[in-house]
Amino acid sequence: MNLYKHVSNAINEKLGTTVNLEVPRNRDFGDFSTNCAMVMAKSAGKNPRELATEISAQIAELPFVAETSIAGPGFINIKLRDEFIWESACLPQSPHTDNPITIDLDYGAYNVAKSLHIGHLRTSIVGDTFNRIARLLGHKTYSWNHIGDWGKPMALVIAWIERLHPDLPYFHDNFTPNTVVDFDIEPAELNKYYPLASAFAKENPEFQAHAQDIKAKFQNGHAGYFALYEKFLAISLDMMNETVKRLNILPFDYDLGERNAAKYLDQVEEILRSKNLIQESDGAQVIVVKRESDNKPMPPYMWTDSRGADTYDSTDLAAVYCRKLTDNPDKIIYFTDLRQALHFEQLFRASQMSGIFDYENLEHIGYGTINGTDGRPFKTRDGNAAGLDDIIDAVNQAVHARVAESGKNLDADTISAIALSAVKFNDLMHDVRSDYIFDPNAVTSFEGRTGPYILYTAVRLNSVLKRANEAGDATYMPMTIDERNLLIGIMDFERIVHTAFDNRATDLVANYAYDLCQLINTFYHNCPILRDDIDAKTRAGRLHIAKVARDTLAMTIDLMGLKIPSEM
Ligand code: ARG
């Protein structure tokens, strides 16, 4: 149950006002505390300590309160009754919202014919965990993998294939969808084309111009380019699915990106024109989104570029329109690199101005950069921008080395599960907005604030429960300080899930997992369960605690999309 909500509601009702209830890190003086006497003293015309005495006496009358005390200038500490803690901890954990809404989540957003890079790690991990949190609370979510499949990279790859195989029929204007072509692309080859083509284009203006032409023709429905594109789209979608599996994130509800959105461009343009929102600027068509009150540069939003081609901007506005028609969401939340903040601010303004979507229901969660131990954006050993697979492989190796060193014998699936926990937990535990340092060695430690530590704690609990080979019993209540602290920690789960959702702060869930594991391990050391000298009643009570702890930890681990191995 949601302990915080229960206690807070009861206090508010008792006092007839809403007070600020805190969860102290140090529970020596109380399980909860409030500074309400200090806040209300002035308007009540009383001195804070005097008012605290009155309020604390009232709180002490609540049936679940054991005692209250006053500290400092007027803080009130509240200690709960043990029986109440025990009974509450026996109730199921079922966080749910009273106001379910529909949310479209835009994360992942991989690009066709471009390999996934380190920048796609956080959008996938944070977006997926946020999705799981929202769903657990009972919100309706739709995840959109807004794939990049309509821009210059497509054109460059087509141009590159034309350079390699000029005789293929795709490049002719008389190509029809019925033209039979015997041509296959090797998936491993495909990912090389874009970087090669883009480097080549920088040196060769002619090639560059040709790619621009291809882009315009492709967007206007050139049958040959389209047929070729469908070939590499299929390969890319397979690779994306591989990644989804490898990262253990939920399958996307839609793998539909820019090309799909482009179908709505005409309708959106009609709306924009009817509101006179499109202007000409240096040959391009733009929407001016600047406001009087802006004190930083706010460039116009590009509707079409000077060659008349669709842009990242235009397809993104069309995507908002498409989602409105498809899911009719209450909110759309985007998870991308912080460096796209300006783009989204422009998009949200354009959505509002056109009446397509309310500005305040569009949100951008921008994440910081993943740096190496040198404090610079993480690169592979040969100095190249790290691909997503490079990261996972590096961590897999680090886990391998550690496990080998410890003399343990773990199978490949277990090693992968540990490696994944290392990558994901390290990502989730940091505030999304901040940069963090990625050190494959540090993140794989079995101790400290790491994914492997979390999994290890879960594996150990599972093993105790399995070895016990008997059900716990909730009738007897063992209540040493460690048992008490653990039970209260367990019951903080629901509050954490709600706060994580409300604040879009997935790091709260990861750090909660760590705090819970600390409590579990203290309990494990100080409150033996299976030792011979432990009487049957105590053992059954402790087994009950271990089971509730395991279930709560498992739910938390599930929110992070991690898998608990059977041994570690
Ligand atoms: N494909 C883009 C990238 O890889 C991210 C797209 C984010 N979503 C969006 N609707 N713009 O950087």
Task: Provide the fold topology.
Elements: H1 3-15, E1 21-22, E2 32-34, H2 36-44, H3 48-60, E3 65-71, E4 75-80, H4 82-90, E5 102-106, H5 119-137, E6 140-144, H6 152-164, H7 187-203, H8 205-219, H9 223-246, H10 258-262, H11 265-274, E7 278-281, E8 284-287, E9 301-304, H12 312-326, E10 331-337, H13 341-354, E11 362-367, E12 370-371, H14 388-406, H15 412-428, E13 436-437, H16 440-443, H17 451-468, H18 481-490, H19 493-502, H20 507-526, H21 536-559
Parallel strand pairs: 5-6, 5-10, 10-11, 12-13
Antiparallel strand pairs: 1-2, 2-4, 3-4, 7-8, 8-9
The structure holds arginine (ARG).
In short:
By secondary structure, the protein is of the alpha/beta class. 52% of the residues lie in helices and 10% in strands.
How would you sum up this structure, described in words?
It is a single chain. By secondary structure, this protein is α/β, with parallel strands linked by helices. The chain folds into three domains: 3-80, Gyrase A, domain 2; 99-367, 3-Layer(aba) Sandwich (Rossmann fold), CATH 3.40.50; 388-559, Orthogonal Bundle (Isoleucyl-tRNA Synthetase, Domain 1), CATH 1.10.730. Helices cover 52% and strands 10% of the residues. The chain is built from 21 helices and 13 strands. A four-stranded antiparallel β-sheet has the order 1-2-4-3. Strands 6-5-10-11 form a four-stranded parallel β-sheet. Strands 7-8-9 form a three-stranded antiparallel β-sheet. A hairpin with a 2-residue loop joins strand 7 and strand 8 (284-287). The radius of gyration is 28 Å and the shape is globular. It starts with a helix and ends in a 9-residue tail after the last helix. Arginine is lined by residues 106, 109, 111, 146, 148, 316, 319, 334, 336. Arginine (ARG) is lined by residues 106, 109, 111, 146, 148, 316, 319, 334, 336.
